[in-house]
Write the structure tokens for this entry.
Amino acid sequence: MFKIGELVVHGTAGVCEVMEIGTPELYKEKAPKQYYTLVSVNDSSKIIYTPVENVKVYLRSAMSKIQCEQFLDSLPDVEAKEGWNGRTMIEEFRADATTRHCIACAEWIKALYLLQEKKYQNGKKQLTGTEKNCLRLAETYLYEELADVLVMSVAEVKAEVLKRLGLTE
């Protein structure tokens, strides 16, 4: 169980702070059970109520500052995501994205940047729409968590992650 004030990563809303634990007024008659009241760190107007015993939406503790620093230090060893193609990409990406697992996001970022570079060298200018969308989501999921915990801008985090992955923008 999470504690009030704790930062968590919500499967669809991203990094949130646990503001309350209890039964919100709007659920008291319908479903009198315990809920986390979460507020998005990036948009304080975004309030999410999720059951404490939730099994549908992934919810985990956000990394600590030390964990973020250790994660950044591990990035040079991260391999590009392998074993996917245009047909399987969406399913594989969704499976990884639901957890917003940072290593998986870094693997996708590296794979898609390398693919983009390969396409450019072969005379193609850009990634497909699906590839761009997966890259955008992987970057958003990873960079926002790191930026929120390390109190850095998303642009600073992106530059640091790409540098440590050995990639250029």
Observations:
- The mean pLDDT is 91.
